[in-house]
Amino acid sequence: MKPPIDFYFDFSSPYSYIASEWVDAVAARHGRAVHWHAILLGATFQAAELKSPVSHPIKREYSIRDFGRSARFAGLPYVMPGKFPIPTQNAARVFWWLHDTAAPERAVAWAHTGLRAYFTQGHDLSDAAVLRGVLTDAGIDVAAAEAAYTDPLWKDRLRRENDAAIAAGVFGAPFFIVDGEPFWGNDRRAQIEAWLAGQADFDHTLM
Amino acid sequence: MKPPIDFYFDFSSPYSYIASEWVDAVAARHGRAVHWHAILLGATFQAAELKSPVSHPIKREYSIRDFGRSARFAGLPYVMPGKFPIPTQNAARVFWWLHDTAAPERAVAWAHTGLRAYFTQGHDLSDAAVLRGVLTDAGIDVAAAEAAYTDPLWKDRLRRENDAAIAAGVFGAPFFIVDGEPFWGNDRRAQIEAWLAGQADFDHTLM
pTM of this prediction? Predict the structure, then answer.
């Protein structure tokens, strides 16, 4: 078995949503597993002195247009959430809580549910009542999830994941690390596929 | 004849160099012409409150790696210039001088020569002596070019092009406008091709 792909995402990242819908299938075609990492873009942006694309004049309008267009190009449903971006620490802590106490697959299932709820239904995951409904739909014990995301243990778990991501060179999302090679953005899919296929004109020779 | 594609580039943009090598061929396959626009990223960055990707910690190292990898993925030669980024107003003013006084095709030929000199040979276009050599290689009258790029007329021409680009929503490079639809980045090539082909699942229905 070849090394797994590390996949970093934020619940409030449209391009992460798009990538979340293909990353497992692409990896599986090349005999790879995927290690999913819920992170906070706010933390990586701070480390890299970046801001959300929608915080920049001119780029804001383009980005909102490109989110929906890129989803449509990938054949995915998409709605621009009314509130965007949103703080996602609670959704991300639930991810790590499920990852560590249930199974990584449960955490990935939650990632899909959360990303789809936000980007296809516009459900604001930063609103406790809305989050409760989405957790219920996902078949997750709501009281236990709420206890987890307010627990310093899981706050710290997420903080350490953010720190580890930054230390690994992650400055945005989605972000992929394959065999030590970093790829940023949903639009690096073709390069990732070429890398995984070991194409002769794009092999593991670095610049 | 369908409307031309507007293509905006900066002589110091690696992704512009990559896009410059495919944009005409892709457009021609779909019966489109390309209107090339030399602009200054510094001006668009200022308008959109952005900085060069290499001005950001963490993102800097990734970007330098990605420039070469993306060129290799496109099958193009690439060297990371020793001095990067560089001010490109003189090269851009020569572009507009050729565009207006000779022919747009002469300007495009200069764009290719300049981009290739910088990104495959590392020739610093911001150095007057180096620029002189590259202009000579391009078969351009060096004295006339130098007179042009120090002339307020061509300084103003470039300034107006920057302003017009910003007014059209351009905040980075390469940037493409096709039928009024904006596309940013070399990595939007697949979407541009789909747009030009009028694919049923990616037609001109906007979000």
Answer: 0.96
